[in-house]
Amino acid sequence: MIPRPDPSQETLVLNMGPQHPSTHGVLRVVLRLDGEYVLEAHPVIGYGHRMHELMGEVRTSSGFYANVGRMDYGGALSFGHGHVLAVEKLAGIEVPPRAEYIRVITTEMNRIASHLLWFGAFLLDLGAFTPILYSFDDREFILDLLEHVTGARLTFSYHRIGGVARDLDDKFIEGTRVFLRRMRERLDVYDKLVTGNVIFRKRAEGVGVIDKDTVLKYGATGPVARGSGLAYDIRRVEPYSVYPDLEFEIPTATEGDSFARYRVRLAEIEQCLRIVEQALDRLPDGPVQAKVPKKVKLGPGDAYQAVEAARGELDYYLVGDGSDVPYRMKIRPPSFSNLSLLGEVCQGVLLSDLVTIMGSLDLVIPEIDR
Amino acid sequence: MSNALPPDLIRLVVSLAVVVGFAFANAAVLVLVERKVCGHIQRRPGPFEVGPHGLLQTAIDGLKLMGKQILVPDNADTKLFRLAPILSFVPPIAALIVVPFAKVLQVRDLDIGVLFILSLAAVNVLAILVAGWSSANKYSLFGAIRAVAQNVAYEIPLLLSLLVVVMWVGSFRMSDIVAAQDGFWFVFTPMGFVAFLIYFVTGLAETNRAPFDLPEAESELTAGFHTEYAGMGFGLFFLGEYTNMLLMAAIATTCFLGGWNGPWFLAVSGTGVVATLIQLCWFLVKVYGIILVMVWIRWTFPRVRFDQLLNFCWKVLIPISMANLVATAVVAKLVPLG
Fold first, then answer.
1. Fewest CB atoms within 10 A around its CB: which of A69, A89, A248, B45?
2. Is residue B327 part of a domain?
């Protein structure tokens, strides 16, 4: 129930959002406050609902593909990757290995960009204005590289059913190698600037502790689950694409607080760099696009594909009836489940902590609203 | 000439005009400095379009603010809503009249100079409370509540750290405090140094500067107590904030950094025009040095949480400043100044 003003109680109902600096988009959180303490926090969603799933049921797969990047503007390539994998599974299309490697390289670069965006926004929520410009400096580097190969900077629309739109060229590969070296140095800078800062530690440590049971109860995934000690990463538990061939670790932390989620994400950037490095070394030769019929017939049957997006587990479920338009499409985005635990975790915290917790969940609202 | 104006009145009017002019000029310069320093800290050039190197940006912004309509929210208490910005802007300017910019550049050398400044600075919290209350906005109200709790708590260590100096000098008079530091600045004594640090931290909190900018914490309270203010209403709060910063730095300079005294090898203590200009330069160098540090801190640190802020004050700053005061009393008794 959305909290309503109650004259019999000495509490205040505060409507935070949908236009508020720290709700990152159009999330609305209705709070019941006692002084600065949050008694109830009730997220209200749907302000950015655009019927993406329905659109998926009236368009051909390649026609719908442009939509998926619009759901998660931070990590558009993960969403694209999941979609084309699901369609290829249902249509029985084999993807050339080079294309699959390119997909992994670009997706992981996008994941770094997404985590950098989160890094800046999270610290902005804590009142530190400068880190976002440092992280955007590095994000800019990635976006320039991705723009060079995909032609876009935010909603890339780079995948094609059966491959990718364009092959990688030497400029991208060299630029990426430069970036790998640069980013490792920059991570040290981030550590010096932020991780050790005593005010930051006091604001993040022990704030918003999410235990394992809560994570399982609400189905939270991604860095939120890994920050609570669950080594749950789709790239390892339900391997897809070429991830089984690549060596990387799944960073976890056991504390479950905002600082743990912060550490997990920074450690993930390091692992992403490792993945990109290996994938570049092993990049096979060959075509980047499989032979695909003009009309991609789906089914009859169904296909389910889970991928690890920047914010957690992303699932596509497609039912085909033999035509080129899916009969049913269901998307399970990560932020929806990650947001759902907000009400439970935020009971009794301070208003400032609520902002910290919301920031540490790394919410992307269009992806929740779909 | 029998019908001439009394010289005291002329002096008063001229000095008032100069002080107000200085406060406005200071705000204009500080806004630009803040933007430029912040830009360079964030690896970007800052404003660059209006005038050479964006020098005219602040002037244009001032014009823009003046051109805007002053909106009063429907449910607001109109009188209080309009009074609050003035209440925030006037006291720091009035307090500037006891600040000794040079040996002869001081409007009034009151014998209760330090007390005068502190009492006027305390009005600021009233302005914020009035603004937050009259806006009829929950975020504004939260900002006001935070401001009151914060300023009331931080005024205690502020006062205690300044009392160290007063106890040493034995006078509230600003000129006596400066004279006592001829070649021997209080910041270079152990007690003076501790008092200076405490004063600086509490000064940041008193002027609502980051990391203690809780009354206007953007990510939590949108714009805090001035959420509903538009145009020059907001502009006056802004002017008041920057004048408060100036005042805080001026007190720090006067009480701990030797006021208009230069370093011992460059000290000029005359009252001539040249000597006054040199003294003024020293004073301004110190004042703006302190302000630059405040700007640097703002663009580097995250914001503290409300309970941490108050805990820090009551559990750390006040006990330390108390102990410091007692130590000063003992030492001042044993080693008389001069």
1. B45
2. yes
* Locus of tokens 């920059």: A186
Residues β-bridged to residue A308? A313
> Quick one: what percent of chain A has pLDDT higher than 90?
16
**Taking the CA of residue B298 as centre, how many other CA atoms within 13 Å lie in the half-sphere pointing to its CB?**
22
- Angular region, A240: left φ>0, alpha ψ -120 to 50, beta rest: beta
DSSP B317: I
Q: Give the distance from residue B300's alpha carbon to the nearest chain A alpha carbon, in angstroms.
A: 6
Which tokens in the block code for residue B211? Answer: 């990391």
Is residue B17 domain-resident?
no
Give the Cα separation of A152 and A159 in Å (integer). Answer: 12
What pLDDT digit, counting tens, does each position of B200-228 carry?
A: 998 888 887 778 777 776 667 777 788 88
Kindly state whether residue A181 falls inside one of the protein's structural domains: yes
d(CA A185, CA A183): 5
> C-alpha A91: how far from its chain's center?
26
B208, B220, B308, B309: best to mutate for the A interface, most A CBs within 10 A:
B220
Task: Establish if B135 belongs to a structural domain.
Answer: yes
Compute the nearest-CA separation of A201 from chain B (Å): 10
CATH number for A195: 1.10.645.10
Choose among A12, A14, A355: nearest Cβ to B219: A355
Residue A133, chain B, CB below 8 Å: the answer is yes
Q: What is the pTM of this model?
A: 0.85
DSSP state of A350: B
Q: Are A300 and A293 in contact, with CB atoms under 8 Å apart? A: no
Domain that holds residue B198: 72-334
Distance CA A106, CA A96 (A): 16
Query: A317: helix, coil or strand?
Result: strand
Rounded to a whole number of angstroms, the distance from the CA of A148 to the nearest CA of chain B is 24
CB contact under 8 A, B41 and A130: yes
Q: Mean pLDDT in each 10-residue stretch from start to end of chain A (370 residues)? A: 76 83 82 86 87 89 87 87 90 89 91 91 86 89 91 88 87 91 89 85 87 89 89 88 88 89 91 90 87 83 89 90 88 89 87 88 86
Domain count, chain A: 1
- Kindly state whether residue B55 falls inside one of the protein's structural domains: no
Mean of all residue pLDDT scores within chain B: 83
Strand ranges across the sheet with A28-34: A12-16, A28-34, A37-44
> How many whole angstroms separate alpha carbon A57 and alpha carbon B49?
50
Query: Is pLDDT above 80 for B32?
Result: yes
| Predicted pLDDT at A264 | 92
In a domain, A246, yes or no: yes
Please report, for residues A78, A243, A288, the alpha-carbon distance to residue A95 in angstroms, rounded to integers and kept in the order given.
17, 15, 8
CA proximity to A360, closest of A311, A309, A307: A311
Number of helical H runs and strand E runs in chain A: 15, 8
The pair of three-digit structure tokens given for residue B45, joined into one six-digit string: 């050039």
Are residues B304 and A133, on separate chains, in Cβ contact within 8 Å?
Answer: no
Q: What is the pLDDT of residues A42-97, one digit of tens each?
A: 888 888 888 888 998 898 888 888 888 888 888 889 999 999 999 988 888 889 98
Domain extent for A301:
12-368
Answer yes or no: is A7 within a domain.
no
**Could you read off the pLDDT of B297-324 as tens digits, one per residue?**
888 888 888 888 888 888 988 899 989 8
Q: Within a domain: residue A5?
A: no
Q: What is the spatial distance between Cα A14 and Cα A38, in angstroms, rounded to a whole number?
A: 10
Count up the domains in chain B and report the number. Answer: 1
